[in-house]
Records
---
Amino acid sequence: MSHAAESSSSSAVASTSTLVEVRDVTKTFFRGAETLEVLIHVDFHMQPGEFLALMGPSGSGKSTLLNLVAGLDQPTSGTIQVNGVEVTTMSARQLATWRSRHIGFVFQFYNLLPVLTAYQNVELPLLLTGLSKKERREHVSTALDVVGLNDRAKHYPRQLSGGESQRVGIARAIVSDPTIVLADEPTGDLDAKSADEILTLLQRLNQEFSKTIMMVTHDAHAAERAHEVMLLDKGVLRR
Amino acid sequence: MKYARLIWVNLLRNKLRTLLTVLSVCVALFLFSTLRSVITALDAATEVGSEARLMTLSATGITFLLPQAHYNRLVAVEGVRSVSWANWFGAIYIDESNFFAQFAVDAESYFAMYPELRVPEDQMEAFMAERTAAIVGNGLMRRFGWRLGQTVVLQGTFLPGDYEFTIRGVYTPDDPSLGEELFYLHYDYMYEAARDQLSPGWFILQLDDPTEAAAISQRIDAMFENSSNPTKTQTEKALNAEFITMFGNVAQLVRTIGLAVFFAILLVAANTMMMAARERVNEHGVLKALGFQNGQLFGIVLAESVVITVIGGVIGIGAAWYLFRPGNPMTSFIQGFTVRTETVWYGLVIAVVLGIVSGLVPAWQAARLSVVQALRRVA
């Protein structure tokens, strides 16, 4: 069971099995003399195996929050813990290592490297591990199997449809068996049918493989697939 | 090595651009190898020649002849073991582009003084026995595909007419910088061609003791100082060095050109790498989001740059090495003009340095990239 909270006090009682704990996080951007508060005192936590959808209009701070949880950016104030590890105090080097082990990222525009095949794209995160070539091959094959694209392993992104590219992106996100999968508008660039397939796949990952998923979306239909939906409005988190 | 494929596919991403960059580095390193070989050949030439042999020339200049009568006085100088003489023949083989040096020598005394020019005994005997015979360097034999016993016709310049020679001997120098493309003929044959109007261009003196060279030189020049044919005497080595300095500051000029080429190519390579890296800002952001460290990205971008310059370098240096291998036509103009092993190594080091320097800025930018900003570029 997850909790989206409007006040910092509610998150202070997060259970010991909490996977993600965001406490009183504020993110402010400075553009010249202008100050832009993108996230304002955000508190929430997620349990392992949860599928959380984060909704909100454009510019509400959804992607910023996702980036903070992924350790891609630092909050102006507040703390973020993932699996008991304080992310906000890590160095860039520590964060990179931590990300490679614990975060699987699914991008809106897939972000596959065009010069690599589907297989090679999925293999990328494993290059950062100590796995042998044979072990990497087994992991990639399993991940592509899960997303149903083993037969397209040798295809380049330009030879794949949008839905297939995103499935490769998902395979890349899960290949190293991360602690949490973060999906930033994973269906934002897809037609309805492909979007539905991707959402089904994410749901399956969550239900069959117990993957914890945090998905940013502005699509209410997509959000329906999640256990829990949180709404960000002008930087403020609402249930 | 895990990232080798990533580096390689990135290089092939824009094949034309990579090819052009490789070619520009290739041309630069070819020029470097060639220009440096000119310098090393000139430097080596200043070291050629014995300090135990003196060369006595006309004090007026190398193109002025000395009277044969000087021989009797030179051979009588204390400390001089033997004396020989020679002259330029200056003929053309087929056309002027086939230039090589020809010396008319007093064969017996000359070759006795030059044991470093190795000629098989039977060939030397055949040469001595025939007035129109020639001894030819092994490089020249290779260059024109001549055979032993072949007749070669040279067209005289200051001694007009066609002159037939039969190749009776092939010499091999102990050191290629001594010259592998020289053509020796009998002085008597040239003397005859000049209708007895010829005298030596220079005398060569073998000394008993090389340490006496300076004193003997002074004595000889003093001996002829007030004659109608004053002389200038110096060691063979000093004469060669002086001859090389006649080229002026060629070495400095060559170095300057080499440096200019290096910087021009550095800018080309750096620009290419900057463009390649700028196009991939989003991809670098993705790699970082996946967990690639700053240092790993730095290394990958830098390696791409080094691979390009090393490939270009290997091709350029290899081409120069092949074209200017021993016996190439250029050795007629500059003795010992070949791409030496040390030049190959210098070239490779330069290729690597070129790659590192040109890749440094884009590699640094990739390493310092903000992931969020990089991902926002497309998303």
---
Amino acid sequence: MIKEKLEEIREKALSQISESVDLNRLNDVRVEVLGKKGSLTAVLKGMKDVAAEDRPKVGQMVNELRAEIEKAMEEAKTKLESAAREVQLASETIDVTLPARGSAIGHRHPNQIALEEMERIFIGLGYEVVEGPEVEKDYYNFEALNIPADHPAKDEQDTFYINGEMLLRTQTSGTQVHEMEKGRIPIRMISPGRVYRADEVDATHSPVFHQVEGLVIDENVSFADLKGTLAEFAKELFGEDTKVKFRPHHFPFTEPSAEMDVSCFKCGGKGCRFCKGEGWIEILGCGMVHPHVLEMSHIDPLKYKGFAFGVGLERIALLKYEIDDMRLMYENDIRFLKQF
Amino acid sequence: MNTSLNWIKRYVPDLECTDQEYTDRMTLTGTKVEGFEKLDKNLSKIVVGEILSVEKHPDAEKLVVCQVNVGSETVQIVTGAPNVHVGDKGQKVIVVLDGGKVAGGHDGGALPEDGIEIKAGKLRGVDSYGMMCSVEELGSSREVFPDAPESGLYFLSDDAVPGSDAIELMGLHDTIFEYEITSNRVDCYAVMGIAREAAATFNKKFVYPCVRETGADASESSSDYISVEVEDTDLCRRYTGRVVKNVKIGESPEWMKKCLRAAGIRSINNIVDITNFVMMEYGQPMHAYDLSTIAGGKIVVRRAKDGEKFTTLDGQERNLDHDVLMICDGEKEIGIAGIMGGENSMITENVTDILFEAATFNGPNIRKSSKRVGLRTDASGIFEKGLDPHNALDAMNRACTLVEDLNCGTVLKGVVDVHTELPEKVRIKFEPERINQYLGTDISKEDMLEYFNRLEVEYDESTGDLVCPTFRQDLLGFADSSEEVARFFGYENIPTTLPASSANSGKKTFKMRVEDVARNVAEFAGYSGAMAYSFESPKVFDKLLLPADAPERQAIAISNPLGEDFSIMRTLTLNGMLTSLATNYNRRNKDVKLYEIGNIYLPKDLPLNDYPDERTQLTLGSYGEGDFYTLKGVVEEFLGKVGMKQTPSYDPKSGKTFLHPGRQANIIYDGQVIGFMGEVHPAVADNYSIGGRVYVAVLDLPEVVKRATFDRKFTGIAKFPAVTRDISMVVPKEVLVGQIDDVLRQRGGKILESMKLFDIYEGDQIKAGFKSVAYTLTFRNLEKTLSDDEVNSAMKKILNGLNGLGIELRS
């Protein structure tokens, strides 16, 4: 009798569970069956009418049925919840192709970006970044770099003078001398900064521009080290496939001196409009620090050797970012800056 | 510097290479070839022709029909050349045959890349089997062939053989190379110098030009006619003079003309051509005077007198001064030394006797004189590089040999040669091991000596010295010897290695790190990096309304500026920023925000005799979106990020004339002014033509760097709850929020964690002369939960303090 009753409850409950369409309905079923006034609870309440010896058995049957119904309800609940999530997600679909909200972040100047690339490379090679004065003494800009009083490079046409002794530095090389005079050897430094030459403003000239000077002084430094260092630099800056070519040149403060060309990173060296068909692009001057320059800075040229190089920063930035007019760099038109 | 390959080959006869090989290899040994021009690039099937007859064209007035003997046959050619007329006969002309090519059109315009093909065809119905040419059609000009007509065909000399190669005859089977010669290689401003490098580069024999002892048979000596006195030996180390009598002025031989032509020099006559040829060949300028004009048989080399005037042979009167060296005779000046001879002594067609001059003048002095006199010539351009005194005599002897070869005069015996002590050959210790260490190579001693041998550098085995020829003025010491080895070993063959690792770590300075933070903060706040010139016009001070006695007007002036606009070093960054903003405004760019990190240059005293104070400034500027307080936020964000955690204070009495009087403040940190900010004065904005409100902030980075730190300390996260109290106040209008902040901070005590202004209002509900200000105050004790009593007591103190400012609580 009880057994049949329980079977009846079971069938009804399970079918109601499986037919529940939402969580509310499922909860109603729970109340109807398992609630205080629920059908299964009623069976338990009627236990007093059951013979004493049958009670444990009936109790067990009721508990088993309760567990079964609870499990079915749990399963149904999970199913209904996940269906409800599906519906919600489906209704929340957005148009991902709508425009992005404008970012308010400003832009770094291309010259600065190029400088930071170079700093990153040389800091990685153990170089310190230092600065030197822009308004410089004649001695540091010229004389201490082996450029004597009568040298054509000192010509007024190229150099802005303040007076007989002070001038606007024409190269960052003077920083070499300041560093060497500190007497802390070995030296590995780069020195970026503004330099000045009396060039009228046009697409490739500016009376103000930037150079990055490099200097290494140690006991066993060679021209081969100079080549290796700058080849590494070129690869880092222009890409792994970049080749370098060193051509003999003349600078008063280095001997031997060289100019370095890199294989055109646009055409890979085949020759294109970018490299004027040559396949190579000149990017810097370098050389072994002239022993006389070391001597003037109180460094013993028999004990120490060094190499130095100088790079035009704007030149690198113009090349690397394909900027066709140097004037853009100092105009600060936001439409230009925004592209970096 | 340009030379033709044929001229180089006169000294390196075994040289065989393509133009490109020559370019590449010369460049890699240090004689940089900038480019080359193959003169016969687009010239083919061009022969000498002889005009046999010229007849009228039946159908065209401006054309004629010619029968031309081109060697193997006679062809009919129709031409419109203005210098060919009906009935002409016998002229030798340049003929392009059917299927041949010329370089350009007869108008001498730009040359087409691939030339112009010439094909047989009909001209107004008459057959024409080719074309007769002008020099322009060969890609040349009257500059190079001065005997060519202004318009029309170029006629060859009568002895030209019909059918022979006309291009060969004209010396156009040649290539002109353009070099970049570095200032240390004075010897390479001469064809011989470059040829010497070519011989060494290609390891071929170098053959010196022919120099003979001249004047051997002459009965007279140069010294019979001329004596030389050098007064200023510091400006003239050597003066050589030699007399040539019975001069026969005439044309130069074709080979010499071809050489000069290739160097872009016009042939004038044999004597002038010899001086020019020797100048190109030896890099030694020479001059020829008409001996009859030289008074007193005397040459005196001395400085000019201040204010003296002199007419050079181009007919121009020149102003002289004491620093200009002159060549004089017994009575007068006859030439500006090293620059140009005088009109009064120049040779003419009627000259019979001449004086040749080859001298060594002081290079820097010639450069300065040339500038002062306002005359730069081929000669001065070479002299200013500073020549080897030995070269003067060599060149003189070469010129005299040419006079005899060309049979254009009688060279007299002996040279009048006045000089100071002549430079000796420089000896450099040969240190092969040191060279290898220096270069990072392993080159044998023998190879090194072989390179030196090619360069005419001798090795003195007894002393172990390298002995350098005097023309190589750049070879002075060890480093120079290593460069010569590197050049001929080949830079490309030197290994590539990295220096042994360094004990130091790479890094930026602290200042640079602070600047990097400034960039990041500015950019995150929407400002883009700008770059302005360091120099500007003194007029900017007026544009910025600075008073006459403003310290900013004490600027460093450039003595030789490009113009007034670039004449003083900036003492404040406002002009650069406003100019950039104005550029953007003018181009209708909206909402522009820029920042610049750059220096100002403050002289310690003027005139400048020591380093000025170069102070790096962070300048922020904007128009459009944003206001004073947005900018203030950026400033404080930056200071916080470099570890300056206190809130700066702002003093509205900053006294900046270029800023709005009611919207400006000095930024003060720790009692020190570290910058200023504000709205640009509308009158200043007008001066820069920027419409709308413009905001700027300038931080003096040295003051920031002094106070910045990248140390960070964790102070714990509060465990105990906070208590908040809102206060709403009625505040006299003139009281600044900053003053209220100060009271809150002082009176709130340790437990006042933060305060936030959330409302400020002036209007109808508030009595006149007052404003309503409301704050949320947050109290917290880090050690325990706050009691109401503690908060109440703090609030009471605060209210007392506020009363002192005339502030009441709003009911």
---
Amino acid sequence: MLLWSLLGLATFAGRATHAESVPPFRILIHPENPLASLNKDFVIDVFLKRTTRWHDGETAHPVDQRADAAVRQSFSDNVLRRSVSAIKRYWQQRIFSGRDLPPPELDGDEAVVGYVLKHRGAIGYVSSSAKIGRAKAVPVQ
Amino acid sequence: MTQTTPAGYSVPCTKATSKVITVDHHRAPRVLRAGRRALSILSAAWLVASSGFARAEESADSSNPLPIEIHAFVSQGFIKTTSNNYLAEESTHGSFEFSEVGINFSKQLTDRMRVGMQLFTHDLGPLGNYRTRFDWFYLDYRFWDFLGVRIGRTKLPFGLYNETSDVDAARVPILLPQSVYPVSNRDFLLAQTGGEAYGFLPLGDAGGLEYRLYGGAIFYDTADATSTLSNVRGPYIYGARLMWQSPIEGLQLGASAQRLRLDGDAAFSADQIAQLQMAGQLPSGFSGPVKFQIPATLAVASIEYSAHDLLLASEYSRWWDSLNTSVPSFAVPQTVSGRFYLMSAYHVTPWFTPGVYYSLLFENLADRKGKNPPYGSVPGAAPLGRGAYQHDLALTVRYDLNAFWLLKLEGHYMHGTAGLSRELNGNQPLSSLTEDWGVFLVKTTAYF
């Protein structure tokens, strides 16, 4: 058990170091959202639906990308600090216990940008090279 | 000592009552059961497939943030023990009586209001027998993030995993540590009908606090009862869970407690009455059932670290319970059981996750080695011995074959026979069952 845990921790530490590099994604919010930057804990709480509202009371609408999308894995590792598999398991627990529903999963950057522009409370992420139109890209601190 | 009720709830039980609280499975012939199982699984698979189309149609409209969500799962397992029947009647020969099917529908009516329901059917040895029931249904209204209410039939938030103890896809092991999450308790300790208040409070640099308070009643499906038990019900249950999401990402600590009572009647056959009267445990001229009440308090302290690909979890639990009956000789004073486990899992790849846990159960902390006979035993009876404890070392590998289908293999080394069902083992005393034994399980689950 101890060896197992140490092995896991060692690998985890290696990945954590790797995750410190510049994240290959941008976080988007609606252009009318007044915030210029986001607190990382707030983003985590919104994507895990522990927090459901923006500071001005607007309902938050987080949106994910498909589980096999590279940008989803990058966002999950860097921001949520859990693998996509672990996040999927988190949502399985909540879905089948009747607690909550996961954010919708959309196909690709373009769909996410469209969703964010359509919903004032939306928050999503796209790859760094994506065209984001009028959507507002905000840093996470 | 404690014994196991028909649904597996560990309750104090005298030797005498353990004779009368026996399982009459009313099982259909094997061929019929196998046919019914196949039909059920096929129906469920069709349901899953057709629901998948429905869900696809819904999600295609990505502009609608409030669609009807449909999710479902179908599981089929196999269990084999080296000795001692465990969970299923013939596990020593291998048993497929280990199936679960569920489908749920949820709809976000407004930003704050949600409704949902889940239909569930299962078969686990003598339990379930594919009777379909509402697993949960609720109306949820979230006033603010720090306060929401939910009314209906809701899962019980006890410990880290009670709510999801029947959701195979949501965890690595096939069997959660049975000391804290005995699968045979499902009908008693998984859900309640009543109300719940919940909330999440961000604490800034100190993390966040998730809290839940609930109260209601337990409705027991009498179809799962034995021929000797009737009117089994839980007139009340209430409890709370507090989880602190620490500033260390992925680390949460918490505590849960609940108080409940189970009531019912135990009937006697003429032969049993005669035997019990000869043993002096029933008065002469006795007639009618014995009314019983089982008040219980359960508490658990929890810690979980889940970050990146690693999961570490541990819980320590104590359960206080007693048996009050209309026949004083059957009553059992309060006993305190101790329960603990340490669990780890690691996502080596997105499709391969091994896990391991060690679980420990003492049925009576005042007699960890079983030096005393069970409560209510006749003078000179053998001590409880190996029936007082259960050490369980489990190894699991989980293969996610794709996003909707998984396969798990699991092996257990068991030391001790606490938690086993006497009824599944020919009503032999637990002290006479094999002390060192193994369990092997295979389970596959399709879900979305």
